[in-house]
Amino acid sequence: MNAVESHGLTKRFGRQVAVDAVDLAVPQGTVYGFLGPNGSGKTTTIRLLLGLVRPTAGRHALLGAPMPGGAGAVLPRVGTLVEGPGFHPYLSGRDNLRRLDAVDRYADPAGTRRRVDAALARVGLSAAAGKHYRAYSLGMRQRLALAAATLSPRELLILDEPTNGLDPQGTREVRALIAALAREGTTVLLSTHLLSEVEQICSHVGVMHRGRLVAQSSLAQLRASAAPQVRVETDRPTEAARVLRELGLSGVAVQAEAATGGLDGLAPEKVVATLVHDGVPVRGFAVAAPDLEDVFVSLTGEGFDVSG
Amino acid sequence: MSAAEVSAADLAVAARPPRPARAPSTRFLRSELRLIFGRRRNQAGLGVLAAVPLVIAVAVRIANPEPGTGEGPDFFSSITGNGFFVALAALTVSLPLFLPLAVATIAGDSIAGEANAGTLRYLLTVPVHRTRALLVKFAAIVTFAVTATLLVAGVGLLAGLALFGGGPVTLLSGVQVGFGDGLLRLLAVCGYLAIGLCALGALGLFVSTLTEQPIGATIAVVILTVTSFVLDSIPQLSWLHPYLLTHWWMSFGDLLREPVFLPDLRLGLLSAGAYAVVFWTAAWARFAGRDITS
Ligand SMILES: Nc1ncnc2c1ncn2[C@@H]1O[C@H](COP(=O)(O)OP(=O)(O)OP(=O)(O)O)[C@@H](O)[C@H]1O
Ligand SMILES: [Mg+2]
């Protein structure tokens, strides 16, 4: 079963289509990285999933329950962080969590203290729990939002940029927390701009671009689907690039002392042979699977393109 | 990260059996009231309301007043005879602005304040059903309106008794009743005024669903209230007066007649009820399907 599933999910704001026929499938028990450039529709998709925003078209289900009808029963099992933290400025961090606990019809009032203290400890906020929220730093606010997301037991976490504003220790802690939750069976959907984060903790990825889901698969599959890159080290990179282009390599780029390009089914030894034959001095040659950033750029382009 | 791992395990194990929904409780409402009454700004507002009767009592004590002018029943001239009337004078003075402003502040804050602070999206994903949110928010507004009215009357009564003493109460119709009877009538006045303010609160709740700016919502409600008072003072618009929210508020004096003069009070209650139902429903119609993009 998919923990999150959507079919043709669409949201239009006036004339702009913010989310365009998105078919999400987040398998249960996975950590799903939700990527995309600024304004590509990640937060809007998350709002749609949580029923905060009505879809223009399409339908979706969380933990097998159709939304928005199943919201009352399913959302208590879903922890959320949407577009940054939001708390009452004149309440302390602890009182803010108490309030969220108080409005939860599924929460046992006898356990409030235990839940709140555990959540605060989980994000390292115990010492600052009594401070007014308005006196919190950016990272403390983000931590409090994560405490709220994990206030009660969750089967699904939907986190919009969870490590935004955190210090390196905080980022590591959050990554470790997410990994630990995932090991125990919690499904995590997280949007992020940190590709290194995705490589470290995500097993699946979906890439948004201009409102559309342009790729969705396991991380390994996504990598495998991308053409490997060749890198020719030479003191005559322009000539090398010309040869690569003539051979039909894709996305050929010139660097200071190297030329690179995508190997579209071509044998690497043929590339070396042709280079040598054409008199390009080859000092080094490497074939590498593209890193996530290359894949991301090839999917979403836009300003990352280097002219070749 | 062992701490995180342990707590993660706790969470996941506990997650297996779905948690049962609990019987309806007052936790949400109590949390809402803590939010309202715990906030400095609101405490200051209540302080101002409590100061009104104190200022009246002290001023009258220091200098005997001219017979009062202005609309509504005049209670100032009766104060020196019986401290009881400080409460009524304070209610009369607070009615055109202070009490509506206090209620408008709370009502304007109700939804727009949560939207502005970014807490609305987290409230709704707890989840709190939107209808439940509106019901509890309105219940909190009602509680505040009642508290504010009782505060003005209560402080007025205590200050009046302390400075001028009590005793049998001479009603507006000239009949004297016992002090206990007078207190009951004061309580009825508070109830009547609070109901009118609750209707205003429903209007404020509706306005609050239209915007993400709580101050804007509050100002809008205050402007509507003042406009209503202004229109009510233009005789040429008498056809409109019965439909104005504030038109019936000053009829509370009818509770101080013997026998109680009921017709206007009945219409006042009807008007307040109609306003409350219409605007709560409007708030619901607006809020239930709204996109929360705050
Ligand atoms: N309330 C709204 N009214 C109109 N347009 C909106 C609204 N909310 C979002 N949009 C538009 O929808 C598009 C998607 O926005 P969204 O916030 O989902 O992007 P995002 O992927 O989360 O971006 P980021 O990485 O910057 O957080 C943007 O073009 C944005 O301008
Ligand atoms: Mg976003």
- Low-confidence parts of chain B lasting 5 or more residues at pLDDT below 50? 1-17, 67-72
Strand portion of chain B: under 5%
* Overall average pLDDT of chain B: 89
Q: Give me the side-by-side strand order of the main sheet of chain A.
A: 7-8-9-4-10-11
How is the largest sheet of chain B built, in terms of strand order? 1-2
Considering residues with a beta carbon less than 8 A from a beta carbon on another chain, report the largest interface and each chain's count: A-B, 54 and 45 residues
Please outline what is shown here.
The complex is a heterodimer of chains A (308) and B (294). Chain A is α/β, with parallel strands linked by helices and 308 residues long. Chain A is built from eleven helices and 15 strands.
Account of the protein in words:
The complex is a heterodimer of chains A (308) and B (294). Chain A has 308 residues and is an alpha/beta fold. Chain A has eleven helices and 15 strands. Helix content of chain A is 34%, strand content 27%. A six-stranded mixed sheet of chain A has the order 7-8-9-4-10-11, sandwiched between helices. In chain A, strands 1, 2, 3, 5 and 6 form a five-stranded antiparallel sheet that branches. Chain A has a four-stranded antiparallel sheet with strand order 13-14-12-15, covered by helices on one side. In chain A, strand 13 and strand 14 (258-262) form a beta hairpin. The longest helix of chain A is centred in the middle third of the chain and has 16 residues, at 168-183. The two termini of chain A are 44 Å apart. Helices cover 68% and strands 1% of the residues of chain B. Chain B is built from eleven helices and two strands; from the N terminus they run ααααααααββααα. Chain B has helices at residues 2-15, 27-38, 40-62, 76-79, 84-94, 98-117, 120-124, 130-164, 179-208, 214-232, 262-288, and strands spanning 169-170, 176-177. Chain B is globular and about 60 Å long. The two termini of chain B are 34 Å apart. Bound molecules: adenosine-5'-triphosphate (ATP) and magnesium ion. Residues 13, 16, 18, 36, 38-44 of chain A line the site of adenosine-5'-triphosphate.
